[in-house]
Amino acid sequence: GAVVSQHPSWVICKSGTSVKIECRSLDFQATTMFWYRQFPKQSLMLMATSNEGSKATYEQGVEKDKFLINHASLTLSTLTVTSAHPEDSSFYICSAPGRRDTGELFFGEGSRLTVL
Amino acid sequence: AQTVTQSQPEMSVQEAETVTLSCTYDTSESDYYLFWYKQPPSRQMILVIRQEAYKQQNATENRFSVNFQKAAKSFSLKISDSQLGDAAMYFCAYSLPQGGSEKLVFGKGTKLTVNP
Question: Does the pLDDT value for residue A110 go beyond 90?
Answer without folding.
Answer: yes
